[in-house]
Structures are given as structure tokens and as C-alpha cells.
Amino acid sequence: MEQKTVFKKMEDILYAYPKYQNRMREEQKHLTNIELEKSYRLKELNNQNSFEYKSELEKLEETRDRIYHNIQRYEEILFRINEALDMIKGHKYYDFIPMKYFSKMSYESIAEKFDINVSSVYKAKNKILGSLEIHFLAQKLICY
Fold first, then answer.
1. Which InterPro entries does the record associate with it (predicted)?
2. Nearest-angstrom CA–CA distance, 64 and 94
3. Which phi and psi (to 5°) does residue 88 adopt?
4. Which of 73, 90, 105, 143 is most buried, judged by most C-beta within 10 A?
5. CA-closest candidate to residue 45, choices 33, 60, 32, 30
6. 56 against 77, higher pLDDT
7. What does the DSSP 8-state code read for residue 91?
8. d(CA 96, CA 86)
């Protein structure tokens, strides 16, 4: 696979990192709401002994399970990305990653932060992605 294609896949994963974090938080809120609704329905069921509510409880339970599995999947993805990033924390241009992919800073802004010219930022990007590649492969975030 061509290096540009590999780096593009890596960049897509890094850009998605904040989205995974946000989605996991949203799912955790949904899970909390499902649990509250479930406890409310259980109180009603105890008072009414209705099969209709039992069916509703089963639906809530299925929804809760689906949300819980989604959260687990997001946690696993975030864990793998974090593990790969931890392996390059000492890299000279490590801060490029959160600046570019999490905060979506421009190359010009990053150049100012590093006090280098913009063409050097592109080179720094290639260096940091090159260092990160083996760890993305090890974490099975990308494959050839």
C-alpha cells in the first residue's frame, strides 16, 4: 500500500478520535436515561402487574444492551489509539497530533506554535505519522 494512502487512513482515525470521545459520552448519557426509565417502569410494573410493561421493560433492556456494547466498542477504539500515541509521546513533534487532528489547527498556526516555517510542518507531519505507523499497525487500527 502506498505511503500516502496509509497516512491518509491514519489521519482519518486521528480526526475521528474526538468524535469517538463525544459519541461515547452521549451513549453514557443514554445509558443513564435508560436505567432511570427502567427503574420507573419497574415501579409501575410492581403496582400494576401488566404484561404490557414487561414488554416495554424487555425493549428497554435490549436498548440498554445495545448502548452498552456501543460504549465498549468506543472504549476499545480509544484505548487502541491512546496506546499507539503513548508509544511516541517523547517524539519531538508529538504535539502536532493534538493540534492538527484534535483541535483542527491550520498548518500555519502549528508553524507559529513550533516556531518553524509551514513547509517544515508538513515534514514534521510525515515524521510523526511515520513514527506512529508501526504502532497503529500493532494496535490493528490500520492494516496493509
1. RNA_pol_sigma_r3/r4-like
2. 38
3. -120, 15
4. 105
5. 60
6. 77
7. S
8. 14
- Cell numbers given for 132: 506512529
How far apart are the C-alpha atoms of 26 and 51, rounded to whole Å?
31
**pLDDT grade for 37, boundaries at 50, 70 and 90:** confident
Length of the chain: 144
Cell of 12: 482519518
- DSSP letter, residue 116: S
Residues 6 or more apart in contact with residue 56 via CB below 8 angstroms: 41
Q: How confident is the model at residue 31 (pLDDT cuts 50, 70, 90)?
A: confident
d(CA 53, CA 45): 6
pTM, full prediction: 0.81
